Amino acid sequence: MKNSRNDNREETIIPPVLPTYARADIAIEYGKGVYAYDQNDKEYLDYGSGIGVNNLGFCHPELVKTITEQAGKVWHTSNIYRIPGQERLAQRLAENTFADTMFFTNSGAEAVECAMKMARRYHAENESPERYRIITFEGCFHGRTLATIAASGQEKLIKGFGPMMEGFDHVPFYRDMSKVEAAITYETAAIMIEPVMGEGGIKQVSSDNMRILRDLCDKHDILLILDEVQCGMGRTEKLFAYQHSHISPDILCTAKGIGAGFPLGACLATEEVGRCMNAGSHGSTYGGNPMAMAVGNKVLDILLADGFFDHVEKMSYDLRKGLMTLRHRHPRVIELVRGIGLMLGLKLNIEPPAFVAKAIEHGLLVVGAADNTVRLLPPLIIEKNHIDEALEKLTKICAEIEKELPEPQSDEE
Ligand SMILES: *Cc1c(COP(=O)(O)O)cnc(C)c1O
């Protein structure tokens, strides 16, 4: 192939790391709590948490201790043997959720893959093999594997990757639930949704709409899959976002925050669904390895400790209040504040990358998203002073951006 390269093509130099990311030109060398430091020792207040992953900040002393101790015992054994850390983490997650059983993965996309396989298998085992299609929502994000990009169906994710895996029906996101029912056919296996859309721009499904989805699933004998890879594990003030509504799913995917920076994910399910998976039906070499399990159990210790979620709720209240004030003062920059818990979004009147770059200049890390939104996903351990500091930086950022905006035109529409 190398020799068949088109010589007429302009000479390009590809870097040794595949250029699949539009990276900011900083490298974090170390971090402590809510602060990150780059190669020049410049300090950043972290309101991105590595995209909702480092929920307990950098180098949480208990996590460092846990992982160091585990590293001196055993890293990997394989799932051909029992892994006691899995049994313990599964038991504890089950006690605190709808789930009876679960499968551990290394990432979010793998958790979603497991969910989709289970949904198909469930119907196949229940004498409805014709039920294999999954309804998903426009603008959703479920990962980057071939199946999960097909699930999303977004042009920017699937372009150039050939025939897509068949079996997904896309409906508009949450506004009009009648479109969901209209999309259900005798072939539908499941509805899959993010209770709070992350990459799509921090959009929350109301409790009422969660209820409607649950009822539709019950009425049509289909499964409800929740992708809580980003909104789960305390991000919304509860262990999982669905716990704000009075419904429970059949399957739930988690990852990101569950490992607080160590690769870990899980696919949780009810007994009824889980029963369809037997020995040999699914697997992963690394999924649920002893290192990941030690971290996952410790993360859960910290999240489930008395008062942890109350703290998140309190911080969320203060941050939101400050952001509302900011929006009132800078309506030309910020159009809307949305989200729940410490999963907040600023819908902007400018392009998110410009805002993110300006924030980096001011020593603040935030994350862009679709729909002109910038995400604020600080570690859940922030304190009041970190909120004040963020608001101070955001005020300066907005003021500077405002100055660079063209003079407002008089509205004549
Ligand atoms: C990040 C994310 C994924 C994919 O997780 P990976 O660990 O990158 O595979 C899936 N679903 C949602 C909602 C996410 O935010």
Q: What is the residue-averaged pLDDT?
A: 95
Q: Which percent range describes the beta-strand content? A: 15-25%
Query: How many whole angstroms does the radius of gyration measure?
Result: 22 Å
Distance between the termini: 56 Å
Topology, element by element:
Elements: E1 28-32, E2 35-38, E3 43-46, H1 49-52, H2 61-71, H3 84-95, E4 101-105, H4 108-125, E5 133-137, H5 146-152, H6 155-158, E6 168-171, H7 178-183, E7 188-193, E8 196-197, E9 203-204, H8 207-220, E10 223-227, E11 251-254, E12 265-269, H9 271-274, H10 290-304, H11 308-329, E13 334-340, E14 343-348, H12 352-361, E15 364-365, E16 367-369, E17 373-376, H13 384-404
Parallel strand pairs: 3-15, 5-6, 5-7, 7-10, 10-11
Antiparallel strand pairs: 1-2, 2-3, 4-12, 8-9, 11-12, 13-14, 14-17, 16-17
This protein binds pyridoxal-5'-phosphate.
Distinctive features:
single chain; 413 residues; alpha/beta; Aspartate Aminotransferase, domain 1; Aspartate Aminotransferase, domain 2; 2 domains; 7-stranded mixed beta sheet; 4-stranded mixed beta sheet; 36% helix; globular; binds pyridoxal-5'-phosphate
Provide structural commentary.
With 413 residues, the protein is of the alpha/beta class. It has two domains: 28-53 and 306-404, Aspartate Aminotransferase, domain 1 (Alpha-Beta Complex); 61-303, Aspartate Aminotransferase, domain 2 (3-Layer(aba) Sandwich), CATH 3.40.640.10. It contains 13 helices and 17 strands. It has helices spanning 49-52, 61-71, 84-95, 108-125, 146-152, 155-158, 178-183, 207-220, 271-274, 290-304, 308-329, 352-361, 384-404, and strands at 28-32, 35-38, 43-46, 101-105, 133-137, 168-171, 188-193, 196-197, 203-204, 223-227, 251-254, 265-269, 334-340, 343-348, 364-365, 367-369, 373-376. A seven-stranded mixed beta sheet has the order 4-12-11-10-7-5-6, with helices on both faces. A four-stranded mixed beta sheet has the order 1-2-3-15. Strands 13-14-17-16 form a four-stranded antiparallel beta sheet, covered by helices on one side. Strand 2 and strand 3 (43-46) form a beta hairpin. It is globular, with a radius of gyration of 22 Å. The mean pLDDT is 95. The structure holds pyridoxal-5'-phosphate (PLP). Residues 107-109, 112, 141-143, 194, 198-199, 227, 229-230, 255-256 line the site of pyridoxal-5'-phosphate.
